[in-house]
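Q: anthocyanidin 3-O-glucosyltransferase, please. Structure only.
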Amino acid sequence: MLCCTAMMDLGSELGVPPYVFYPSGANFLGFMLELQALHDEGKLGDLAELKDTESEMAIPSLEKPLPCKFLPSVVVEKEWLPLLIDNTRRLREARGIVVNTFLELETYALGSVSVAGNPPVYPVGPLLNLNSARPEEEEEEEYKEVMEWLDGQPAGSVVFLCFGSMGSFAKEQATEIAAALERAGHRFLWSLRRPSEMGITGVPGEYENFDDVLPGGFLDRTSGVGKVIGWAPQMAVLGHQSVGGFVSHCGWNSMLESVWFGVPIGAWPMYAEQQLNAFQFVEDLGFAEEIRMDYRWGSGKIDGGMMVTAEEIEGGIRRLMAAENDEGRKRKTVKEVSEMSKKALTEGGSSCSSLSRFIQDVIDNIS
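A: Structure for anthocyanidin 3-O-glucosyltransferase:
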């Protein structure tokens, strides 16, 4: 794993060739390789300052220049950057890097990291836990209620809002989302969770009463078209035929799940490398619509200290759910890439072939 590169020394002592599994995409891998090279050459500026400028960075794993305001949160936090740089430097010592992506999705990014001087890169994804579509026993009742509601909605009509295991909103931001959903007029399923008092470092909790955090009368006014829930069975929801759009925090697993099920994304990144994922899907690949790509949780602040307006959210949802024009064509493209993701894992597919090359390389290096 990425943060276990120190174990490479132990493997070498035991005669075990070091390989690294990289759970993020090839784009973030290329981004970190570039940052580490710039750092070691003394050419990396203060990223925390750059994020507040109109500057751009040329990143080999991206086709378009990256505006610095979209730098991923994890590299503008000074306590994290040295660790990431050190780990990335160690990556270069590996015999190979196994990446959770597939060739048809990240063709350009994979080409950028598959160059002389870098270890061989093996895209073997999408690696998804499809069994997670089924709930644990204690979640069975909530799961059944959500799926029954989705069963009653027309195909492709529901926008699903879910922000990962760490995503949450306090009253002020929840009010803006609620206003946007009412004005957009689309059917919706919204996973709304309460921020931890520890901020981004704490695990979100559940609201006991959504009326306490949502505008007065919202639940009554939208009872025929929407549903607000706490925990969400994300994989099962994305796989349901009624879901036509996914407003997401842009974690890499969520991005791969959306591709697998052919559901276009409304990009609202929050932390880690999510801003980079969002930029790639919106600008480079054209698979997603922007909600707010420069959003980031403030360090240690409950609800981040930033606000996305109802107007921004409404506009993003309308574009995301559009059936015609450019946004409609994006929907078709995502469906096509969804088919590619499944073929990649079949015999003769790109990821299956890459896995075979990886296994052969391990055998050759051990012998």
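A: Brief note, in case it's useful. The mean pLDDT is 91.
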